[in-house]
Amino acid sequence: MIELRNLTRHYGEVTAVNDVSLTVQTGQIAVLVGTSGSGKTTLLRLINRLVQPSSGQVLIDGADTASLPVHHLRRRIGYAIQGDGLFPHRTVARNIATVPRLLGWPKSRIDARIDELLALFQLEPAAFRDRMPHQLSGGQAQRVGVARALAAKPDLLLMDEPFGALDSVIRAKAQSDLRDIQRQLGTTIILVTHDIQEAVQLGDRIAVMDRGRVLQYDSPAQILTQPATPFVRDLIGPTERAFRLLSLTGIGPITMPGEAHGTPIARDATLRDALAECLWSGRDALPVQGGGIVTLDALRANAAQDRQ
Amino acid sequence: MSPPAILVAILGLVGLWLPLVQFKPNRIAAGDSLTLAAALEAGWPVALGLAAVLILGCLRYWSPRLRIVAAALGIAVLVLSLGAAASQLVGPDNKLARVSPASGFWLMLLAFSLMWADGVTRMRPSLRASWLMLAGALAQVAALLLSGQLADVSVMRELAARQDTFAHEARAHLILAFGSLGLALLAGLPLGIAIYQAPRWRGPVLAVLNVLQTIPSLALFGIMIPILGWIAATLPGAGRLGVSGIGMFPALVALFLYSLLPVVSNTLSGLAGVPATARDAAAGLGMTRAQMMFQILLPLGLPALLAAVRIVLVQNIGLTVIAGLIGGGGFGTFVFQGLNQTAMDLVLLGALPTIALALVSGIVMGLLVDQSRATRGQA
Amino acid sequence: MIGRLLLALAAAFALAFLLSPTSFAVLFQPLTRNGAPAIYTQASLLRLTLFHLGIVALAVLISTAVALALALFVTRPVGREFLPLARTITTIGQTFPPVAVLALAVPVMGFGTGPTLVALILYGLLPVFENALAALTGQPAKVAEAARGMGLTPAQRLWQVDLPLALPLLLAGMRLTAVISLGTATIGSTVAAKTLGEVIIAGLLSSNTAYVVQGGMIVGIIAVLIHAGFQHLERRAARATGQTD
């Protein structure tokens, strides 16, 4: 469990982060979202003390981190940044081995870990181990960057706009891969993004930041349905929020017995997918693979229920 | 038709028409200038052969490789012609007569060197091929010099008459140029790292080093003599450490001072040029300052550092010539002796090895810079 | 601000010294031994300085004109084939030691100011050419596209786009050349060129440090002033064309 208590950072007159307190449960993804200059990146860097807090505390599993030497603290916390930040003079394997080597792991354990991580990120170990960073595509480099951050099995992974340099198709894939890997490993993640869609898709909890303060820290559904301030409402986009909300829930709960015509929809599709299919094919009901149907009425009823 | 090759051909043909050698019955007498065709017994066929290579080289379908081979052959024939002309003109046992290369020789040498450079540039050789070609060129030069074919050319005669002093001055030249570089690295690297860590000091330190570089080399060499002499005389123990106002030491210190600016400023720009993301990642992954410096910043700054070494080495090999003027030794000794006695062969004896040394050092260091960039993906 | 003040002081000092060298004898007296003269009087220091500056200015102007013409030639369609070769020659040419070039000019030109001028011109070509080339080839492709798209003729593009944008880098090349030439010109006095090197060499020959220092000092101050002057021009040119550093 990660606890931030009254974290504040001043730069001269400017207060970049203003009295932020929030808690991230073990195994969850917390997303810090806000416009540029909102203090979200500074808040992230306060956690691994790349920026020293002016005041406030960071607790990991109840222990204050201020007493640890910074480099020891950082070796326990994974760190992945936009545009990967790979060391251009080191092979993929050496890059991933950075923290384990700093921690003095035996070579055999490091090698095994490298192969394990490469495989986890769908990079064939034999082909990628000895490549140099400039021989990787953007998506590959981004995955190596995250693998490097996870190498020493950190308690916590910090990610600063990790998908910022990727094009939209690769980004969607990288996001769902991250979600899968995070579930598999149970890593706690704090991720910074300016993209509300990314926040809604990845976050168990979302912290909306503006001018150094956290305006709202809630589940995605809460943020979408009960925005705490006008700023939050503007950020989520009033015309988009119905669709964002639909994309949070699978069709499972509203699937009912029955028969319908046409191409069936996948069992793990979201409500948004179902609505889109109804509108596009002009049908009031869709068959679901493996039995049952989803109806336009049920979708509408569900949305109305969310609004309350 | 290839335009650069046409330029090469014009230069070469003008060179053929100009005198290849200057022949003097003795050192003082007025000289006689002879073209290649006139100076050699088999002059006409050789001249026609060279002209044919130059003209055929204009054809566009000549491959870069063919150009390089033709240029290397042309240079070999040219140099051997010079040697043969000298032997034939001087004759055996004539100790007084002198044959020196004249404008035609230099122009043709330039033409074939350009042909070589043109071939190499078009070939875009890999690093490995570049090293091989450099080795080949050096082997060719060494073979020509050691063949004894040039023994009667006046520069080689000067060399033969001064073999011991030549070896001595060559050693002095190398010690001065490389020694001052070593000292500059020892002092300049830590200084560059220090001002990288403490940005407040960058302005003042670089300003001082900049002013140091504007002092004309001649004056800096000269001022070192009294300053170091005074230090050696007044500071106890300084003399025993080798500090001295005469001989090599003042030159060494002057060259060292000149080398500081490039070493310090390139160290700084190399470190500052490391991508911010790599630095951020290194800190975020938990490297200490020392680990970041030695594992990330210095390895990534290496190309800039090697570039500094290249600049300093080339600059110092050239400036070391001035040491000859203040009794510091080196090839400059021959240059200034020659200028004083208006003995141009002696000037050449000092100038040619200096140029060759600077050229080879520059190329070797340039290749090392490219190599270090290639392995870092900064091609 | 302090920098400007120091420059102005240095300039004033150098000017006063050149106009009336003997008034400063007291300053240089401690550097002499056995009652040797403190100030060089075999020739007027002012005249030597003017000669020195004249040679350097002439060399810089000629090398700039030639280098710019060459750079323009190899970046136009007619000369495009020379571009790679020109790059190679520039890199290699800069490794030639200026002193050796000077020494080699003597057999061709004889002693005097001539060989110095030739060596300075040849040596000065390279930095200007390199910078002019970098400026002319380093332009954003968009600019060239836009200029072509708006229907500028090649000549109009040259005068209205290429040259103004290249000016700051060109000036930087001239600065390098001028500072190198100032120093190298002193060595010219070893082949009997009339420059301030004469004072330094006289000092070396007679072990009179006062001469070495006054010769070196004047050249040094002038070099710093020229360096600063060109940098000022470069900044103005860069601002005028919107290329702020």
Describe this structure in words.
- The complex is a heterotrimer of chains A (308), B (379) and C (245).
- With 308 residues, chain A is α/β, with parallel strands linked by helices.
- Chain A has helices at residues 40-47, 70-76, 92-96, 98-102, 107-120, 125-128, 138-150, 168-185, 196-202, 220-225, 230-236, 241-246, 271-281, 296-307; strands at 2-11, 14-24, 29-34, 55-60, 63-64, 77-81, 156-160, 188-193, 205-210, 213-218, 285-287, 293-295.
- In chain A, strands 6-7-8-3-9-10 form a six-stranded mixed sheet, with helices on both faces. Chain A has a four-stranded antiparallel sheet with strand order 2-1-4-5, covered by helices on one side.
- The two termini of chain A are 32 Å apart.
- The model of chain A has no long low-confidence stretch (mean pLDDT 88).
- Chain B has 379 residues and is mainly alpha-helical.
- Chain B folds into two domains: 3-153, Butyryl-CoA Dehydrogenase, subunit A, domain 3 (Up-down Bundle), CATH 1.20.140; 163-374, MetI-like (MetI-like fold).
- Chain B has helices spanning 3-17, 36-39, 43-56, 64-90, 103-123, 127-146, 154-161, 163-197, 202-214, 217-234, 248-272, 276-284, 289-323, 332-340, 344-374, and strands spanning 19-24, 32-35, 98-101.
- A three-stranded antiparallel sheet of chain B has the order 2-1-3.
- By secondary structure, chain C is mainly alpha-helical.
- Chain C has a single domain, classed as MetI-like fold.
- In chain C, α5 (98-109) packs across α6.
- The mean pLDDT of chain C is 84.
- Classes of the chains: A alpha/beta (308), B mainly alpha (379), C mainly alpha (245).
- Chains in contact: A-B, B-C.
- Chain A: GO terms for molecular function: ATP binding; ATP hydrolysis activity.
- Chain A: It holds the Pfam family ABC_tran.
- Chain A: Belongs to the ABC transporter superfamily.
- Chain A: It comes from Paracoccus laeviglucosivorans.
